[in-house]
């Protein structure tokens, strides 16, 4: 048992897991993100922790796969004794009954926490995600959209979002009764709000959705969660705003000064499996890289092609060239997205593993949630620790591995919607951390 542990979280994809890692570390919490279920030896090597994470890929799994993935996680977290177990979801809550079901995750993990209160935190203001009267909104460029009208998320290739009311969205995933507390209620005295929450919990809902319409709401939500967690360990679901809310309540958000990001020491590889328009703009702006457009279908299904591409990329890296390998420059999804997107992500992971065996690097970037998950899983590594922040939702991390050629590798994992236009250039040239 980690006697100081406050939060144990499982990230449903690797990019989101690193965002929570960065959030906790910047709040002054001793934090380590494991790349799989840690063994006793790895837990001992980690030392005392306030926040322990496991990076997973449940977002891309069917419910039966999620059961096999999450049941051991729930057992471990119960043994560790953290007051808060956090199932970290994407800030856009994109999920479906058949893949990445948040409802399935809650049903699997909640019995290991025991508390009848299952808070779901909607919204993450630093990523321009807001939950208002149970409805989710997200920014795209300068504009704000209800999530079911968001230009990218309403047509996500795997888990499109046709419903903005998160209570209805989660009801489709088996959480038939999701109660809610709306943000205007936070203005009432703390005692009255506590009584309101007690009344909601007494109705025995499957979960309680908590609005986040402004950064100031985080501390109030954090207090509600922590007061209940001190009585009995609980499961919370939502994006990194779960940890932000707790940190705001503990008043420790600014205890760690930002770290500068130095220019890369050697050539940089960016592997972009993301199909989003945001990543497409970042690729277009990455003028310092030699760019290679990969044939997505051949990469996913042709082992010889994948080996040739790995050899070509490794060769150019060995010559000192920064390389950007991408499966799309236009932000368009591949055909038959449910099948091909996962096959492509797995292939990208295999490609990366082959490249790093041929040309070890000191700094690496991976774009795309599923691509990041499978790429890191393909490496012989066991953990990530926080280095610095490149952009909201995008952290630069240090890889922990027993392989000396991988240990210490600086790695950026980013979701398709994250980062500014010059992100890949900043990964190479360095920047002042934000």
UniProtKB/TrEMBL annotation:
<keyword id="KW-0067">ATP-binding</keyword>
<dbReference type="InterPro" id="IPR042213">
    <property type="entry name" value="NBD_C_sf"/>
</dbReference>
<comment type="similarity">
    <text>Belongs to the four-carbon acid sugar kinase family.</text>
</comment>
<dbReference type="InterPro" id="IPR031475">
    <property type="entry name" value="NBD_C"/>
</dbReference>
<dbReference type="InterPro" id="IPR037051">
    <property type="entry name" value="4-carb_acid_sugar_kinase_N_sf"/>
</dbReference>
<feature type="domain" description="Four-carbon acid sugar kinase N-terminal">
    <location>
        <begin position="7"/>
        <end position="246"/>
    </location>
</feature>
<dbReference type="GO" id="GO:0016301">
    <property type="term" value="F:kinase activity"/>
</dbReference>
<feature type="domain" description="Four-carbon acid sugar kinase nucleotide binding">
    <location>
        <begin position="269"/>
        <end position="424"/>
    </location>
</feature>
<keyword id="KW-0808">Transferase</keyword>
<keyword id="KW-0119">Carbohydrate metabolism</keyword>
<keyword id="KW-0547">Nucleotide-binding</keyword>
<protein>
    <submittedName>
        <fullName>Four-carbon acid sugar kinase family protein</fullName>
    </submittedName>
</protein>
<dbReference type="Pfam" id="PF17042">
    <property type="entry name" value="NBD_C"/>
</dbReference>
<dbReference type="InterPro" id="IPR010737">
    <property type="entry name" value="4-carb_acid_sugar_kinase_N"/>
</dbReference>
<dbReference type="Pfam" id="PF07005">
    <property type="entry name" value="SBD_N"/>
</dbReference>
<keyword id="KW-0418">Kinase</keyword>
């Amino acid at each position: 048992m980690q006697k100081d542990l406050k939060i144990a979280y499982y990230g449903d994809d690797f990019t989101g897991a690193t965002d929570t890692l960065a959030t906790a570390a910047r709040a002054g919490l001793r934090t380590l993100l494991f790349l799989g279920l840690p063994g006793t030896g790895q837990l001992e090597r980690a030392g005392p922790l306030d926040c322990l994470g496991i990076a997973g890929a449940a977002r891309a799994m069917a419910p039966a796969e999620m059961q096999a993935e999450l049941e051991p996680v729930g057992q471990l977290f119960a043994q560790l004794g953290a007051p808060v177990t956090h199932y970290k979801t994407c800030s856009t809550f994109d999920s479906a009954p058949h893949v990445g079901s948040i409802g399935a995750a809650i049903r699997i993990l909640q019995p290991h926490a025991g508390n009848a209160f299952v808070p779901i935190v909607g919204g993450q203001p630093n990523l321009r995600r807001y939950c208002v009267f149970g409805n989710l909104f997200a920014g795209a460029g300068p504009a704000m959209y209800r999530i079911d009208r968001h230009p990218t998320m309403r047509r996500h290739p795997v888990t499109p979002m046709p419903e903005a009311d998160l209570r209805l969205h989660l009801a489709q995933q088996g959480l038939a009764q999701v109660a809610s507390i709306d943000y205007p209620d936070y203005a009432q005295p703390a005692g009255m709000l506590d009584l309101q929450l007690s009344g909601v919990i007494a109705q025995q809902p499957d979960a309680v959705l908590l609005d986040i319409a402004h950064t100031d709401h985080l501390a109030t939500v954090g207090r509600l969660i922590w007061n209940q967690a001190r009585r009995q360990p609980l499961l919370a679901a939502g994006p990194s705003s779960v940890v932000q809310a707790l940190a705001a309540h503990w008043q420790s958000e600014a205890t760690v000064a930002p770290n500068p990001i130095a220019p890369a020491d050697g050539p940089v590889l960016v592997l972009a499996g993301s199909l989003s328009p945001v990543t497409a703009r970042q690729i277009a702006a990455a003028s310092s890289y030699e760019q290679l457009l990969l044939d997505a279908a051949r990469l996913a299904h042709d082992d010889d092609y994948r080996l040739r591409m790995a050899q070509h990329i490794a060769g150019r890296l060995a010559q000192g060239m920064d390389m950007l390998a991408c499966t799309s420059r236009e932000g368009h999804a591949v055909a038959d997205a449910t099948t091909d997107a996962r096959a492509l992500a797995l292939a990208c992971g295999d490609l990366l593993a082959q490249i790093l065996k041929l040309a070890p690097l000191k700094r690496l970037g991976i774009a795309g949630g599923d691509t990041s998950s499978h790429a890191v899983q393909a490496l012989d590594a066991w953990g990530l620790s926080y280095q610095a922040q490149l952009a909201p939702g995008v952290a630069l991390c240090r890889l922990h591995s027993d392989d000396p050629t991988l240990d210490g590798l600086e790695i950026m994992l980013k979701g398709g919607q994250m980062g500014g236009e010059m992100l890949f250039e900043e990964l190479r040239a360095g920047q002042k951390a934000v």
